[in-house]
Amino acid sequence: MDEPVKLRLFEDAMLPHLRAAHNLARWIVKSPQDAEDLVQEAYIKAFRYFEGFQGGNSQAWLLAIVRNTCLTWLRDSRTGLSSVVSFDEHIHRTGEHVRNVEEALVVESDIGSLRDCIEGLPVEYRETVVMRELEGMSYKEIAKTMSVPAGTIMSRLSRGRKRLEDCMGSRA
Amino acid sequence: MSCDFNSELIGAYHDGELDPAQKAAVEEHLKVCASCAALLEQMRSLSRRARDPGLYYEAPAYLEARIRGALRAELPKELPHRAQASGSFWKWAALAACLALAAGLLWNTRGNSAQKTIADAVVASHIRSLLATHLFDVPSEDRHTVKPWFDGKIDFSPDVKDLASSGFRLVGGRLDYLQSRPVAALVFQRRLHVINLFVWPSDEGAVKPGVIGSQQGYNVVHWNTAGMTYWAVADIPAAELQQFGELYQK
User: Fold this and answer.
1) Rounded-to-integer distance, Cα B220 and Cα B206, Å
2) Which residue in the set B15, B60, B75 is minimally distant from A7, CB to CB?
3) What is the pLDDT of residue B132?
4) What is the overall mean pLDDT for chain A?
5) Chain B partners of A4 at a C-beta cutoff of 8 Å?
6) What pLDDT, on a 0 to 100 scale, did the predictor assign at position B101?
7) What predicted TM-score, i.e. pTM, was given to this entire model?
8) Smallest CA–CA separation between A44 and chain B, in Å?
9) What is the largest CA-CA distance in chain B?
10) Rounded-to-integer distance, Cα B157 and Cα A27, Å
């Protein structure tokens, strides 16, 4: 009946969502270093608020905290620096994914374009697309994470996808 | 070719989010509308490409270890047990209430639903006290030590008895949390078994000790006396726990 026990329960419930937490944070803030720091910050906050967790979907609960932490940080640091970091990171990643030159050219150009287009979305569409298309979360889960009705998720996804198609079309 | 069909519904269809009636309506429409069928195909293609692992930002391996370390730094350092109990009690208590609720869903027994709810919580709390290696806030066989320990921590003074002569030895007490309120948990030992006796004020009339139910080998005995409600739980035979209740109520 003490903090170490709470910690153990917390870790068992929340650390399995680290992969999703990191992916979401990385897509929201676009910078690897900041994403890691913010995920860590979110986990510390989540631990402090753990008594507020009423059971149910632990992933949606945690991601809501990750998301809030990231959005707050974005608001506080609108300096334009993050887009520079994201550009460098993109060059770096392209190098990582080379399998053979020819394949890399085709795959990277397509996936690279999609990455750029998702990154170019306004954050509310971007996070919705990431949670649906990359995490495979249901509308209900996404809605819970973002504290909005499921219908809002449906229309944000619809608009987000439309923008992605337009963006990809303009690059083709 | 355009159409005025709600394209959001095509998306929801693609995501498997429609109820059967809506789903059938969309499917009917897709048969006759080439532009919506093309839109659906576009979404399918996008979703396929979005599943490329190259788009997923995997967490670096060191991040989990880093977070575990940071979480440990959040823990209070080397506090005396009592201070730690009072400092973290409320946070922990709320969590305990959640767990008790969860355990309650697994409990199947007779009795009325209010009693059942409490019995659920009592068993969950008992199991937790054993798992958590936090059986006591005040380890003592002396009731004159255990009883005053609760002063100022709860708004009532539990009747603490030692029934060692009958084979139920008082071993300590702690604060616990049940029924949305702090309660006194008195801990007794019967041979190698632990009995948790939960006590809190109640305005229900007197009730003689009776077996409320059993679950996973744990028996629960409940009684009310002198404005207090008592809930005893242990993995000893129901008859023995009943005897404990009768001795305690005297």
Assistant:
1) 17
2) B75
3) 59
4) 85
5) 75
6) 60
7) 0.55
8) 6
9) 92
10) 55
Q: How far apart are CA B53 and CA B146, in angstroms?
A: 60
Task: Give Cβ neighbours of residue B47 (< 8 Å, ≥ 6 apart).
Answer: A133, B14
How many other CB atoms sit within 10 Å of the CB of residue B154? 17
d(CA B192, CA B185): 18
Whole-angstrom Cα distance, residue A142 to residue A153?
7
Residue B153 contacts residue B146 (beta carbons within 8 Å): no
Name the residue facing A5 among B51, B72, B132 (closest C-beta).
B132
* ipTM above threshold 0.90: no
Task: Give A88→chain B minimum CA distance, Å.
Answer: 15
Name the residue among A1, A18, A19 with its Cβ closest to that of B129.
A1
CB-count burial class (<10 Å; 0-12, 13-18, 19+) for B177: buried
Task: Give the list of residues 6+ apart from residue B78 with CB closer than 8 angstroms, or none.
Answer: none
Residue at token pair 């608009």: A159
> What is the H or E stretch that residue B185 is in?
strand B181-190
Subunit contact B46:A165, Cβ cutoff 8 A:
yes
Q: Do B221 and B245 touch, CB atoms closer than 8 A?
A: yes
What distance in Å separates the CA atoms of residue A168 and residue A111, rounded to the nearest whole number?
Answer: 10
pLDDT exceeds cutoff 70 at B22? yes
Please answer yes or no on whether A22 and B59 come within 8 Å at the CB atom: yes
Chain B residues in contact with A164 by the CB 8 A cut-off are 46
Q: Mark out the alpha helices in A15-138 (DSSP H runs).
A: 18-29, 32-48, 58-76, 81-96, 101-120, 123-129
Given an 8 Å threshold on Cβ–Cβ distance, is A6 in contact with B174? no
Distance to chain B for A87, nearest Cα, Å: 15
Inter-chain touch A2–B47, beta carbons under 8 Å: no
Give chain B positions within 8 Å (CB) of A157: 8, 11, 15
Query: Are residues B244 and B220 in contact, defined by beta-carbon separation less than 8 angstroms?
Result: no
Query: What SS3 state is found at B119?
Result: helix
Per residue in A95-127, pLDDT (tens digit) is 444 445 555 555 557 899 999 999 999 999 999
Residue (of A118, A170, A109, A168) closest to B42 by Cα position: A168
